[in-house]
Amino acid sequence: MKFLLTAFFTFFLTLSAQAAPIEFTDLAGRHVVLDKPVTKFGLSEGRYIATLSLLRPDNPTEGLVGMMSPLGWTHPLLEQQLFEKFPQAKDIPVFGAKGADSVSAEKIIDLQPDVVILGLGDHGPNSKARELLDQLEAAGIKIVFIDFRQDPLINTIPSLKILGQLFGVTDRAQAYIDFYQDRLTTIRTRLENVNDKPRVFLQVHAGRRDCCWGMADGMLGPFVEAAGGENIADKVAPGPTALHTHEFLLLENPDIWITTASGTLPEFQAGSLPVATGPGMTPPMAEESLARYLAAKEFQAMDAIKNGRAHAFWHNFYNSPLNIVVLEALAKWIHPDLFHDLDPQKTLSTLYARFMPFQLDGTYFTTYHHDK
Q1: Contact predicate 217/358, CB 8 Å
Q2: Which residues pair with 77 in a beta bridge?
Q3: Alpha-carbon radius of gyration of the chain
Q4: Could you give the count of Cα atoms lying within 13 Å of 44 in the half-sphere of its Cβ?
Q5: Which of 20, 94, 81, 23 is nearest to 53 (CA)?
Q6: What pTM value is reported for the model?
Q7: H helices within the chain, ranges in order?
Q8: What confidence score (pLDDT) does residue 24 get?
Q9: Handedness of CA 39, 359, 325, 342 (dihedral sign)
Q10: Facing residues of 231 across strands?
């Protein structure tokens, strides 16, 4: 009898756990309730497949019925590896292009997802797309907002928690959160009593856009302060990014100049100007690419360049929970003595080995050497 009662209660508790709804508040402040982990979903940008790979390494795109833009737009090598390891991913429909204007509710509804995951402020529809959201919800489709772009220092961990609940992989999400938090805590602890804040200019898309777009109040801009620096664009920029002149840079003469590198291996090989790091790039290639861009006399007049304190990191760490490696790089570049033991490339390798179902290839960080 005791055995039967124990079995009954075990069975009852199992059923109760299975029946318990999934509830959370997303990054747009929307209360979301689901009966069970999602099995059919749509996705804003294909770049989020990298995040899904961290959390669902056995099959990152299982249940993905459509996405606004393909992964290959931002990470062609990862897309290639995805297709090789999970061939069915080749057949995932794309319901838009590179911007929110390319998306219609009808396209998404036709794919019949249970949930659509959108970025709070990415290139796809955001929380202000009222008409689109109303149409999707009227069709019985749940909307979930995450954010790795608008305020990543604050929103990366909550977004990972939401995705963990959404897909029923909370343990996996927590494992990566612990990895992330450990490195974040190391940086914050070492900086607690540091008053010296070197002045930094953080440029985006060097060589691809006019000089010089800076990140300030938003996106990766706050990472400068979190890494112990002063972002010189922060006081003059009207938002997350703004265009600054060469004259501004020469006048402000920052101690450290850093750029995101959105150039690719083929562009580097063709002699194009965009600074290139990332897949396929070797350390000498990345150094040469950065030196090629900084050869302009306007840059050569800056102390940061003269003193070898000019650096670049792969642009696509932005809008991704892999952004922790950027914080490590900035901390090391801004306070090299304090963070001499940090190696962001090694951290990235560790991250891939522990969490990603793909191989890491390429050089993702580089420094300009004035004496070469």
Answers
A1: no
A2: none
A3: 22
A4: 27
A5: 81
A6: 0.92
A7: 2-19, 49-55, 76-85, 105-111, 130-138, 152-166, 170-190, 222-226, 246-252, 265-269, 283-294, 297-300, 303-306, 324-334, 344-355
A8: 96
A9: positive
A10: 200
Query: What is the chain's length?
Result: 372
Tokens of 345: 């490339």
Letter for the amino acid at 312? A
Burial label for 3, CB within 10 Å (0-12, 13-18, 19+), is exposed
Q: Do 71 and 92 contact (CB within 8 A), yes or no? A: no
Q: How confident is the model at residue 18 (pLDDT cuts 50, 70, 90)?
A: low
**Residue 150 in tokens:** 């608008």
Taking each helix axis from N to C end, the angle separating 344-355 and 170-190, rounded to the nearest 10 degrees, works out to 170
- Asked, as a colleague might, if the bond just before 211 is cis with ω within 30 of 0, I would say no
- 39 contacts 63 by C-beta, under 8 angstroms: yes
**Domains of the chain by range and CATH?**
18-168 (3.40.50.1980), 196-367 (3.40.50.1980)
Neighbour-count burial for 324-350, b at 16+ CB within 10 Å, e otherwise: bbbbbbbbbbbbeebbeebbbbebbee
Residue with tokens 């796809």: 124
C-alpha to C-alpha distance for 358 and 324, rounded to whole angstroms? 19
Confidence of residue 259 (pLDDT cuts 50, 70, 90): very high
Burial class (CB in 10 A: 0-12, 13-18, 19+), 43: buried
CA contacts within 13 A on the Cβ side of 21:
7
At 65, which helix (H) or strand (E)? strand 64-69
Pairing of strands 230-231, 213-215: unpaired
Q: In sequence order, which ranges of 198-245 are alpha helices (DSSP H)?
A: 222-226
Query: Could you tell me which residues come within 8 angstroms of residue 193 by beta carbon, excluding any fewer than 6 positions away?
Result: none
Query: Is-contact 27 158, C-beta < 8 A?
Result: yes
Can you read off the two tokens belonging to residue 368? 């300009």
Q: Is residue 180 scored above 50 in pLDDT?
A: yes
pLDDT tier at 19 (50, 70, 90 boundaries)? low
Q: Read off the tokens for 92.
A: 């995932």
Q: Using alpha carbons only, what angle is made at residue 344 by residues 122 and 200, rounded to the nearest 5 degrees?
A: 70
